[in-house]
Amino acid sequence: MDVLVTGGDGFVGRHLCSELLDRGHDVTSLSRTPDPSVLPSEVDLQQGDVTDYDSIEDAFEGKDVVVNLAALPPLHQPPKETSHDSVCIGGSINAVEAAEQHGVSKFVEMSSLGADPNGDTAYWRTQGLGEKVVRYSELDWIVFRPSFIFGDGSETFTFVRRHTTPYVTVLPDGGDHPRFQPIWVGDCVEIFADGIEDDAYDGEVYELGGPEVLSFGEVARMLYEADGKSVEIVPVPMVLATVALYAVDPIPSIPLGVDQARALKMSNVTDHNDVGAFGYDESDLTTLSAYLRGEQRHRPQRRPVPSD
Ligand SMILES: NC(=O)c1ccc[n+]([C@@H]2O[C@H](COP(=O)([O-])OP(=O)(O)OC[C@H]3O[C@@H](n4cnc5c(N)ncnc54)[C@H](OP(=O)(O)O)[C@@H]3O)[C@@H](O)[C@H]2O)c1
C-alpha cells in the first residue's frame, strides 16, 4: 500500500513509518519542517501545513491510506501562531477533504484517550471534534484513542524531567494525579499497522491502554530510578498548583496555564481496553518498567483478531 502519514516525523510517526516500511509499504511523511534525520531514507518527505489546504493537497495524490498524526502536544500551551483548533479540527477538515478529492480509500485518525467534543481542555475538545470530522466523511475510517504512549523520543519523558527534580520533588497531591495507562510505542505501532492493513477494523473507535495504571508521581519515580536516582515526593495541595497555573496562564513566556491545571485532574485510563481486538491481552504488553530496563518485547508475529 501507499501510505501518507501526516506528522510522520513526530514521536509516534517515526516509529509508525518504520513499522510500515518493515511491512513492505511505501511511506510518505508530511509535516511543516520535515526532519530526515529521524526517519529511514526510504520515507518520502513532503513539506506542508495541515492548516493550509493548498500546501498539503499534492501529497495525497495516489495514496491508498492516510494516517493523520499531525497535532500539537497537550503538555504545553501552543505557541501564539497556532492552536489546537486550527491543527486538530482545521487540519482534519483539510486532510479529509484532500483524501476525498484524491481517491484515498481509508483514513486513520490518531485521537487520544479522553477525546470529547465537550472536553475540558482545548486538546481533548479538538481531538473529539477532529474525530467527528473523520467519522462523518465519505472515507473508510478508523479512530485510535491511546493513553500516554512511551518509548524512545517521548516528549512526555522530557516534560516529566523538566518539571520534577531527582532526590526531592514537589508535586500537586503528591503526584497522585493525573493517572495514565501507558502503552509502549512499539506495541502501539503494531496495532496501528494492523488497523491500516486490515479492512475488518474499519468504522470503529479503538481505545488503547497498556498493562498498568500509573500516576504522574510513579512515572517520575520510575524515570529517576532508571537513572540510578531516588525521589522523595513532597506533596502540595492541588488547589495551590491550580491557582499557580491559572496565574501564569496570561504570561506568554510560560507555556503552562488553565488547560494544564485542568489536565492535572483528568484520568487517562480506559474502562474498555480494545487491545484484545488486535490479538493482545493487556498482560502481553510492555510495561514502562520493562522498557526502562531495556526489556521491551520482540514477540512473534500475531494473528490479528478483527472485531465484529
Ligand atoms: N505521544 C503520546 O503520548 C500520545 C498519546 C495519545 C495520542 N497521541 C496522538 O498521536 C499523534 C502523534 O503524537 P506525537 O506524540 O507523535 O506528537 P509529536 O511528536 O508532537 O508530533 C507531531 C507531528 O505533527 C506535525 N505537525 C504539527 N503541526 C502540524 C501542522 N500544522 N501541519 C503539518 N504537520 C504538523 C509535527 O511536525 P512539524 O512541527 O514539523 O509540523 C510532528 O511531525 C497526535 O495526534 C497525538 O495527539 C499521542
Short key terms for the protein model shown above:
308 residues, alpha/beta, Rossmann fold, three-stranded mixed β-sheet, 10 helices, 19% strand, globular, binds NADP nicotinamide-adenine-dinucleotide phosphate, NAD(P)-bd_dom_sf, NAD(P)-bd_dom, NADH dehydrogenase, protein-containing complex binding
Shape: globular
What compounds are bound to the protein?
Answer: NADP nicotinamide-adenine-dinucleotide phosphate
Low-confidence stretches: none
Strand order of the largest sheet: 3-2-1-4-5-6-11
Say which CATH homologous superfamily is assigned: NAD(P)-binding Rossmann-like Domain
Whole-number average pLDDT?
Answer: 94
Instruction: Name the quaternary structure.
Output: single chain
Class inferred from helices and paired strands: alpha/beta
Distance between the termini: 24 Å
Tell me the Rg in angstroms.
19 Å
Protein name: NADH dehydrogenase
InterPro entries: ComplexI_NDUFA9_subunit (IPR051207), NAD(P)-bd_dom (IPR016040), NAD(P)-bd_dom_sf (IPR036291)
GO molecular function: protein-containing complex binding
Organism: Natronoarchaeum philippinense
Structure description:
Pfam families: NAD_binding_10 (PF13460). This protein has one domain (2-292): Rossmann fold (3-Layer(aba) Sandwich), CATH 3.40.50.720. The chain is globular, with a radius of gyration of 19 Å. By secondary structure, the chain is α/β, with parallel strands linked by helices. 34% of the residues lie in helices and 19% in strands. The structure holds NADP nicotinamide-adenine-dinucleotide phosphate (NAP).
